[in-house]
Amino acid sequence: MIRFALMLRNSRTRTEICLAQSYRNKDYHNSMMKVKYMAGVAIAAIAISSCDEDTLTIGQSLTAESDKIELFTASFPVSTQTTIADSVLTLSSTCYLGKVKDPETETNVTSEFTTQFHVLENTILTDEDKIIARTEGRASADSCDILLFLKSPFLPADSLTAMKMRIHELIQPIEEGKYYYSNFDPVANHLLRNDEGAINYSKMFTYMNLNDSDAYRASTSYLANIRIPLSHPYTAKDGTRYNNYGTYLMHQYYDHPQYFKNSYTFSHNVCPGFFFEIADGLGFHAQVSNMGLCVYYTADVDSVVNRVMLFAGTKEVLQTTKVTNDREAISKLAAETTHTYLKSPAGLFTQVSLPVDEIKDYIDKNGTKHTEDSLLAAKLTFQRINNESFNERALGIPQSLLLVQQDSLSAFFEKNKVPDNKTSYYTVFNSSYNTYTFTNLAALVTELWNQKQSGLKGDPSWVEKHPNWNKMLLVPVSYSTSQSDGSITNIAHDMSLTSTRLVGGADNPHSPIEINIVYARFNEKK
Prior knowledge:
single chain, 2 domains, 526 residues
């Protein structure tokens, strides 16, 4: 509410400046009073429309008969339907790994990912002549591994579920400057190195790493992890053999220090990255929050010390997540008409058709036309439908939703936009009311109307060419906020396992979805 008030206050200030250039004396004074009064009424209207009470008496509660502003309220039905997401943009610093059965579809959902590794600023290797382990007269790594740090298992009960993955070495880096969606397949795109010397290992694992001691796992600093050893003999693409992958990295560092200047030179000359593929098992799915490529060695520097050279899989390098859903099963859910769905990852969205024409051309029962009235508030609530039966493996509830123009969905994520409260909005799940509520979409309704009017001026067939002009999508998302003021700094598609049904659909058996509107106009009559 404070944020709305500040927005209105700033808008009011800019409007006053414009009015000062157009009005003088009494006319200017009257216009200023109108703007200030309208801003105050707008704040109050938004406050009331944000409540869950009936808004039909707003006009009576905000103004007295002597006031020069009139408020009117109306409600309009909103139509919804489920739409298939197909694939979503996956470039983010968070990857997912696992395979589970979706209890709604009785089909499997699989998440796999690729990653490059980032050269940290302090990546320094001890002088070669100080390295104790030697192979054919040169420095040698004691061992090498990849660490995947896990967060948020699908179910705590799955902590000992046995899974099997394959770790594939990429033959070349995934090309930068492109957008990669959740259906991107590095195998189909021939990005895996398949010769005999390449890294192509199987790894059995569980969420709870039993190779770590009980005391270590019980410590407050412990992070669940999968440790993937790369200590097998390794043959580089040029045919040179090494006793392990760590030794290969060390020799590249000593022979070509320029390759370690930054992540680009490292990925294009030394380590293109890896693909982590689920090979077997069912019932495990977790977020991979961090990852590291570690080279362990022993050096004699005044005394014998154990050291590690670390490369990190972070947002500074390219990562992609591949999601595999059963298309036929997803399509069956999308065809249901007595409700709509939200499902992630890369599953189902809810399409929302806003009654923009009806709102702008509204004539109330008294014959009053509201085309020229200002929209002070537009509240829209989506009711979640509770699961009809308990299932401990039911997917979670989407916690955050983005409301965005359907035809702008790809551009929104590809351009790394954040909600502007004009053509895109976000909200969070209200567990107390079991709802998702957008408290004020007045700017959106006005923007869509203006887009249509502007389009029709240049092309009478504009609506036929833009059939989605008033259609929005509800999309499950995750987001990051600024530590200083809490504002959203980044929004990405939710790649975790979530699913819920919403009231709506063509054959909605529940109360209709309605958008509640508050109109305002000045009444010059005394």
